[in-house]
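ARCHIVE RECORD
Type: protein–small molecule complex
Small molecule: threonylcarbamoyladenylate
Source of inputs: curated submission
Record status: active
Notes field left blank by submitter.
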Amino acid sequence: MAVILTADEALEKAAELILAGNPIAVPTETVYGLAADATNGEAVARIYEVKGRPRFNPLIAHVSDMDMADAIGEFDPLSRLLAEKFWPGPLTLVLPLKAGARIHPLVRAGLDTIALRMPTGFTSCLIARVGRPLAAPSANSSGRISGTSAVAVDADLGARIALIVDGGPTPVGVESTIVKAEGEGLRLLRPGGLAAEEIEAAAGVRLERGKTAGLEAPGMMASHYAPGAKMRLNASAVSPGEALLAFGPARAKDAEGAKAVRNLSPKGDAREAAANFFSMLRELDATGAAVIAVEPIPAAGLGEAINDRLRRAAAPRDIEGASA
Ligand code: TXA
Ligand code: MG
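STRUCTURE (tokenized, with ligand):
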């Protein structure tokens, strides 16, 4: 059973467990991460075990400063500009792996690139304390909703890990935005907690979207973030017994007949909605409703990441090896 310690008392215990090769759950600004020493293959393998994650899903290596990042990834000018502008923060950059980088190959799952992110808060202190990058996928079992609170992580993974560091609810609430430089341009591999528009404004180029050849971000497969309930998107009316995930001030027709209602943002703010997204989805799923109806959510800003995750949550569940 996991011990839960608050972020201000957990640093020494967390560092000790990490250096001994154990995965632990840590708060980041996006979602909780299941972190382990990225230089230790057995420690990384334990992450895959705890999550029950398909082996081909590569992990993000988290760093605490630019020197550590430079020792792992080859930065092109555009990626460096984005790192300088948005790190620490909810942005992950996919870069060619630097020769001699001390990253265990299991972290990359065989790719010759590495996903790098510099988080804020407790996790950053922990990385600096252990002096090693931490591999950390979201702290949830494979295919389940990402944990945005210590309680949610405990319910899902508590029986399988030694420590959960409680940093309170995660402020951003969805995973980081993943971007990869391609030639002179940038490709959006996963919309997330940093709005694509902000990246485009800083970089001065449009983000390419859509599929590339091969499995560029394997965790981006269709059936991810699957709750137990079926999801019905863009609902304009609620059928009796459905749970309702609402957004904004106006309600879908017959909302008073819903089994339960959660409003992502009564004032219609996408950032607030992102922060509430996984916890509200989890709460509605816990009501046992067979269907969660979801009101339309505009695609601007963080709405893109929310809609992306809604589509995954609504996708058929029988896809082989789906989800991270
Ligand atoms: O906010 C976040 O990014 C959280 C926190 C804990 O940092 N982490 C997270 O990790 O969401 P995870 O493992 O759930 O998602 C990582 C995504 C996956 O879709 C994976 O396929 C992709 O990053 N990825 C990792 N390495 C990659 C690479 N070299 N090339 C392309 N995609 C990569
Ligand atoms: Mg994940």
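CURATOR ANNOTATION: The two ends are 23 Å apart (CA to CA).
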